[in-house]
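Progress note, sequence design subtask.
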């Protein structure tokens, strides 16, 4: 299974269970660096059978949609402490599903706690490694998942 297929499958398992539907894969590409220029980013590290980093970048509108959905409408702003926690948890669930797929061939992979980086006009650069990136679009905005990971042999 290709990394892009694992990303798509992990998104289906984690995001869709909370009613995030109508995702469309806009673009799949290979890059030589793990980076994001979205205003809201969650970074999760991988260790074990696979090493590297995952960046889940999203537009503010999409981040607010995650928060509103995860908190059943009680919080609507991603900048709220509970909003940041909801975004982190949603991305953590995705990373866990993705790590399970990576671990399928007995290459156990562990994930780090999520780190949120946000701000206007920022660009996040993590690793200069082969990175698989999947860009999603929906009626609520766009989200990009970049996986700059490599298998330990």
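Output:
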């Amino acid at each position: 299974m290709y990394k892009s297929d694992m990303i798509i499958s992990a998104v289906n398992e984690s995001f869709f269970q909370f009613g995030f539907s109508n995702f469309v894969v806009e673009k799949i590409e290979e890059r030589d660096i793990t980076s994001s220029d979205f205003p809201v980013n969650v970074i999760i590290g991988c260790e074990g059978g696979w090493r590297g980093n995952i960046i889940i970048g999203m537009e503010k509108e999409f981040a607010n949609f995650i928060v509103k959905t995860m908190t059943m409408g009680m919080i609507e702003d991603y900048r709220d402490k509970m909003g940041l926690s909801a975004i982190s948890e949603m991305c953590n669930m995705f990373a866990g599903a993705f790590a399970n797929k990576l671990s399928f061939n007995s290459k156990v992979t562990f994930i780090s706690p999520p780190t949120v980086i946000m701000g206007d006009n920022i660009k996040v650069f993590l690793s200069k490694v082969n990175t698989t990136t999947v860009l999603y679009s929906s009626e609520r905005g766009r989200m990009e998942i970049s996986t700059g990971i490599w298998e330990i042999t």
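The CA atoms of residues 28 and 149 lie 16 Å apart. Work on this subtask will continue into the next period as scheduled.
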